[in-house]
Write a structure and sequence with these properties.
Length: 385
């Protein structure tokens, strides 16, 4: 992967940067958190310092259907301008009129153009080519979208492209953890859906121990024939992943819970008790790991030199079921291991617990980092090499 350090002189050149300014917005289109914008500042400031003649920024926001005004990029351009203390010019209709010559310009929401994520490869390619024609160099600073072949991600087909500092950090750290881990390496995989089974299957060949948690764990226990009452089981995902489940169930280093906190309703004020996973009754749902499982998992994490954590341990949003996530999160933070956390809800759990600073990396890109730990190559990263 070529990074900015490999780039030739950018002085006097036009550089187009794919950023991820897909920030949370209110109904009026005001930016509710500028975290993602601030995240890209090192790359943007570096390019400006190198004397580029024009910096063209592009992002998607949300999932527009009819070019909704609240998904326009005006407000993120304004926010970026405030942070940089420079003028950032938002450009509409740049397809027809070309770009103004201002130093920093921000294109309209990429997804307002059907070519950005069209299923038709030719339509995507035409848009990709058009974007590439706007500049001399391309920078990918949108790790979270790098598992997708969207037009704006693939400009290096037509021009030199480099990873921005944020992309470089995420890709390098996750790749190092997978290719070159310090042992013992422990993977903790939780969350809601069976979509993380691919990660379990890949990591069981890399990590010393894979600790399964979340609804995913109870889904696997159900696949083993245990009664899981009314637990949130991803039956559909389980069916799709059927063959993987057999392989995973045979692995000696994949651990499943032995006890659980069960509730009679999906509610904070439900009746709650702790039971063995063999004793979940009809009408009860497993919403967190039990103390015995937490103890076993924590003991393994304490010894680890590398930890990957994807997916919350229980329903951490509700106090009675947040114990597992808190205990496992703290154990990871205190282990001294190189620890990588991925996934939107996992990232918010880590932040809620005040542990984000203790982790080597809290990945910004849930889907992209998940694909990496599944052992897949990210197309928008591959094309940077
Ligand atoms: P991420 O966004 O980190 O990839 P997921 O989206 O897969 O994670 O899963 C997060 C959700 O999983 C959280 O909202 C949490 O409440 C839920 N969850 C965790 N454990 C359970 C469980 N045992 N039953 C139901 N939901 C669970
Ligand atoms: Mg999620």
């Amino acid at each position: 992967m070529k990074t900015l350090k490999d780039a030739p002189s950018m002085k006097g050149k036009k550089v187009i940067v794919r950023v991820d300014f897909n920030v949370p917005m209110d109904e009026k289109g005001n930016v509710r958190s500028d975290k993602r914008i601030r995240f890209s500042l090192p790359t943007i400031e570096w390019l400006l310092k190198k004397g580029v003649s024009q910096l063209i920024l592009m992002t998607h926001i949300g999932r527009p259907k009819n070019n909704e005004p609240n998904l326009k990029t005006d407000k993120v351009a304004e926010k970026l301008g405030e942070l940089l203390k420079e003028k950032v010019v938002k450009v509409d209709n740049w397809g027809e009129n070309g770009l103004p010559s201002d130093k920093i310009v921000m294109l309209e929401n990429l997804r307002f153009n059907p070519g950005e994520k069209s299923k038709d490869e030719n339509e995507r390619e035409a848009f990709c080519k058009h974007l590439a024609s706007l500049a001399d160099f391309y920078v990918n600073e949108a790790f979270s979208n790098s598992h997708r072949k969207h037009a704006s991600m693939m400009l290096p087909k037509h021009m030199s492209g480099f990873a921005g500092f944020g992309v470089e950090k995420e890709v390098t750290q996750i790749t190092d953890a997978l290719k070159n881990p310090k042992h013992p390496m422990v993977a903790v995989i939780g969350g809601l859906k069976a979509d993380k089974l691919g990660a379990v299957a890949n990591l069981m060949n890399i990590a010393d121990d894979v600790l399964v948690a979340g609804a995913l764990a109870f889904t696997l226990l159900k696949a083993q024939g245990k009664n899981m009452g009314s637990s949130k089981i991803d039956d559909e995902g389980l069916q799709e992943m059927g063959d993987l489940v057999k392989v995973i169930n045979k692995a000696k280093n994949v651990y499943l819970p032995v006890d659980a906190v069960v509730a009679d309703r999906f509610a904070e004020d439900a009746n709650v008790k702790t039971v063995s996973v063999d004793q979940v009754e009809d009408g009860w749902m497993a919403l967190d790991l039990g103390p015995k499982t937490i103890g076993e998992y924590v003991a393994k994490i304490k010894n680890a030199k590398t930890v990957l954590w994807f997916g919350p341990i229980g329903v951490f949003e509700m106090e009675p079921f947040s114990h597992g996530t808190r205990m496992i999160g703290r154990a990871i933070a205190e282990s001294g291991a190189v620890s990588i956390v991925g996934g939107g809800d996992s990232a918010s759990a880590v932040e809620k617990l005040g542990l984000a600073d203790k982790m080597a990396l809290v990945s910004t890109g849930g889907g992209a980092s998940l694909e990496m730990i599944e052992g897949k190559e990210l197309p928008a990263i591959k094309i940077l090499s």
